[in-house]
Amino acid sequence: xxxxxxxxxxxxxxxxxxTIEVNAVPGGHFSLVGLPDSAVKESKDRVExxxxxxxxxxxxxRITINMAPADLRKEGSGFDLPIALGVLAASEQIIIPEVESxxxxxxxxxxxxxxxxxxALPMAIKAREEGFKGMILPAxxxxxxxxxxxxxxxxxxxxxxxIQFLTGQTDIEPVVVDTRKEFSEGLDNATVDFADVKxxxxxxxxxxxxxxxxHNVILVGPPxxxxxxxxxxxxxxxxxxxxxxxLEATKIHSVAGKLQGxxxxxxxxxxxxxxxxxxxxxxxxxxxFPQPGEISLAHxxxxxxxxxxxxxxxxxxxxxxxxxxxxxxxxxxxLAVDYPAxxxxxxxxxxxxxxxxNHPNKDCSCPGGAVQKYLNKISGPLLDRIDLHVEVxxxxxxxxSEKKKGESSKSIRERVIKARDRQxxxxxxxxxxxxxAQMDSRMLRKVCEIxxxxxxxxxxxxxxxxxxxxxxxxxxxxxxxxADLEGSDNIASAHLAEAIQYRSLDRENWAG
Length: 512
Description:
There is one protein chain. By secondary structure, this protein is of the alpha/beta class. It folds into 2 domains: 2-177, Ribosomal Protein S5, domain 2 (2-Layer Sandwich), CATH 3.30.230.10; 194-506, Rossmann fold (3-Layer(aba) Sandwich), CATH 3.40.50.300. It is 37% helix and 16% strand. The protein contains 22 helices and 18 strands. The protein has helices at 38-41, 43-53, 80-90, 120-129, 142-146, 159-166, 179-185, 201-213, 227-232, 243-256, 280-284, 294-297, 313-317, 320-325, 370-375, 380-384, 397-400, 409-426, 441-447, 452-465, 469-485, 493-501; strands at 2-11, 14-25, 30-33, 62-68, 102-104, 107-108, 114-115, 134-138, 152-156, 217-220, 271-272, 285-286, 291-292, 302-305, 327-331, 336-340, 344-349, 388-391. The strands form 6 sheets. Strands 11-14-17-10-18 form a 5-stranded parallel β-sheet. A 4-stranded mixed β-sheet has the order 1-2-4-3. β8, α5 and β9 form a beta-alpha-beta unit. α20 runs parallel beside α22 (493-501).
């Protein structure tokens, strides 16, 4: 007897529906075809044990399982559940007339328990697109899939429970999620706040500008000056994610298996802070079976690279293209997958190996040329792609002992949101452009016009700092953001002057 069940597999961040055809005829041979990987091939042993432990048996017949489309590689252990159901139905141990109405996924334990899986959200989106009635999947992943409207999500803890549901012996209450309620409840769950930061008003100002325009930032200062503390508070002043941004971020974390159990929808912007020993593949994604890297997990959020010069140069250089294109393409012999990489880069570094170059109170103990050599660990093209270079100086005792709290993240975020609203109006109708940092050269010339005084100021800066054409564009983008924060339609000389001062690492003789 031939039975069809339906599963799903993920490539990149998109799912493809897989038809699992199970045919049982007289004989005693088993074959599994359709480009299964090792985990899928091992499913027979798990399924056979699970069936025996819940009172069924592996049929003593010739079982042929085909996973279509046959030229697409199938990965992971999530096909155990649809294979088990197909084998039971094909051997006429159960009758499940509605099985073709559901996409079914889940790894089986030897006792028949259903284990968590990856990629539930993109699978649910695909199931709805293809007109399936619902989806049966592990209970721990049910809320994640339930944010997809128009799809019945059936949570399951074990194979026996699924069999009883499909044979009509029991009902399982579908999981329903109020997406907007789930989203709004998590918006203000931050545990840190800019109000706790003592002093550092100029750094707060720079980070406010960065948040308002989506600009990349590098913080340069001695140990203990507060670089990491400030960076960790950056996400609290970014505008809240839209529902679509939250869906994008949730989908990527779902595919990577990084979504916390029971989470339906990410509401806080991602903040990723990989260690400097990270490999190229872990940062940008890839591997034998491609998975999203840190830059994709930071999509619509922040990628924080602490102690930037300590990262391997090859790791930093692979970021250059994704920083411009906001997407990373992983190419393999048989496939190519695209992962979103629209992250905001926050980097920090000491000014020299000992950490005290330009320190107001401590002397630098580095030998001659060491400061420049340390800075040269970061390539010029990468620095060009960072809009704001900010010097962080130590906080004085008077500022540390000040009992008055600083301005709260909520107050700063309100100004940031107003500036972003101006940008949304400006870029209305333009795909993949929601903030000033994303402007291309054509849009830049259109919205960043400057007067003669501003032109003269910028020409002087370009000559003295020997800036590249990319740095010129970055200055104009930052100036446009400063103008947006002030509610100005035009870029004034004061806006340009402030933007120019945020190119610290371009200054002549900065490193001696």
